[in-house]
Design goal:
35% of the residues lie in helices and 16% in strands. It is built from 17 helices and 13 strands.
């Protein structure tokens, strides 16, 4: 019953602008960004270019039901039944923009795998954990996770433009859509103010850019006013799934409160569209550096060729490949998870074969709140006090002399030092 209510709330979210896009006016200052000149995809005939480039139209018209999806992606009777069964537990939301990237006649299309539910989500739900990273356990106040000494995570909403099938916080979908109240936000801010060791705050969700710019700015302004807070980071997938959201109003606002870093989430080279590149360019021109955090996904990006193409493409649009995450052990994601050793093999195939800038750090976020652990191929073969023995990316073996320790230098006879000094004179 709870999930039925949640599915209805998603439909209401699409129909009524002010349900979740808070405090958005329709006045002169609230116009959608100007159309960039790109054609509206054929599957959305009848939609004007102005509508297509308006992020609020995209959000309101997300595909959230099996019937809506069938209008654009022809489904068999079995597929409809499986989708209807799956979305009772794990709902669906796909922006028209992201849906347009799917190859319609390919059921295993890598874009489709990230967006369209599969029955495996419930058939394999006995694998995994509801909250594998134990974020709820590490919350110091509702919505604020303080796990590492000098940084914390603010979760302001669980609303996203798209419900990614591999979502780490998939458990949060079961609670309906929510936004932290002003009182809850103030409790988070007060905690950060009172803990001077915190120098870095990550704002996330859901996707925090689902909030209007006017709603988001006061939170960022109050964070920037905290003297000991140096860095603000925002985690968002909007540049990937709804790049129209990255408009001049948002970029101008963020540019006033730097340094702000954005971590986004491209998983496949076909997501690197002209629209996505333009969104990233607008952020960069506002002084906001961009990192990318991919997730290793079966059938999406679990080959070295795909990862190389993705990472090189990211650099071309001025986005730094930062992390490649092993998919978290979340209920409902087992069909997308890849063996950890495959990630290490991909790192082996990248290192030395492309620029180091195009090689992300492969990490496992440990269950139970253990934090991130980096993994890479084993290039160190042996070591002792005198030397380290390595293999390089071609498998060739090299020996490197190990520098002497400081205490060894302290043991150098003073007479030798004085004799050498006298000779120089």
């Amino acid at each position: 019953m709870r999930m039925e209510t949640h599915t209805k709330s998603l439909a209401r979210c699409n129909r009524h602008k002010k349900s979740y896009l808070l405090e958005e006016a329709d006045g002169q200052d609230d116009k959608p960004p100007s159309y960039s000149g790109h054609d509206v995809p054929g599957m959305f005939s009848g939609i004007t270019p102005a509508q297509w480039s308006d992020w609020r139209w995209q959000f309101r018209n997300r595909i959230t039901t099996v019937e809506e999806l069938n209008r654009y992606l022809p489904l068999t009777g079995d597929e409809k039944a499986a989708l209807a069964l799956t979305t009772v537990t794990y709902p669906m939301a796909i922006t028209p923009y992201y849906l347009s990237l799917i190859t319609i006649d390919d059921p295993d299309d890598p874009i489709r795998l990230q967006a369209v539910p599969r029955v495996e989500e419930i058939a394999l739900s006995h694998y995994g954990q509801e909250d594998p990273l134990a974020e709820n356990e590490d919350a110091v106040v509702p919505g604020l996770v303080h796990r590492y000494p000098d940084r914390c995570l603010m979760v302001l909403t669980n609303i996203c433009p798209m419900l990614c099938r591999h979502c780490t916080r998939k458990w949060a979908w079961k609670n309906g859509s929510w936004i932290r109240t002003q009182r809850e936000v103030q409790r988070m801010l007060n905690y950060i103010r009172s803990n001077t060791a915190i120098r870095d705050v990550i704002i996330s969700g859901g996707d925090v850019l689902s909030l209007s710019t006017k709603r988001l700015e006061p939170v960022i302004a109050e964070l920037r006013a905290i003297p000991h807070l140096e860095i603000i980071r925002i985690g968002t997938r909007y540049p990937v799934v709804l790049p129209q959201r990255i408009d001049e109003e948002l970029c101008s606002m963020l540019g006033r409160y730097g340094p702000i870093w954005i971590n986004t989430h491209f998983n496949h080279p076909r997501e690197l569209t002209v629209e996505a590149a333009q969104a990233c360019e607008r952020l960069l021109r506002s002084g906001i550096p961009l990192n990318n955090q991919s997730v290793l996904l079966r059938g999406v990006n679990d080959t070295a060729d795909t990862q190389r193409s993705l990472c090189q493409g990211l650099l071309r649009i001025k986005v730094r490949p930062y992390y490649l995450f092993q998919t978290d052990d979340v209920e409902g994601t087992e069909h997308l998870r890849v063996p950890i050793e495959r990630g290490i093999e991909i790192m082996e195939a990248l290192r030395g074969h492309t620029s180091g800038l195009a090689v992300p750090q492969f990490v496992v976020d440990l269950p139970g709140g253990g934090g991130k652990v980096p993994l890479q191929p084993n290039y160190l073969l042996e070591q002792n006090d005198q030397e380290f023995v390595f293999r390089n990316y071609e498998g060739q073996v090299y020996r490197c002399r190990n520098p002497r320790k400081q205490e060894d230098f302290d043991a150098v006879p003073q007479s030798l030092i004085h004799t050498h000094h006298t000779t120089l004179m």
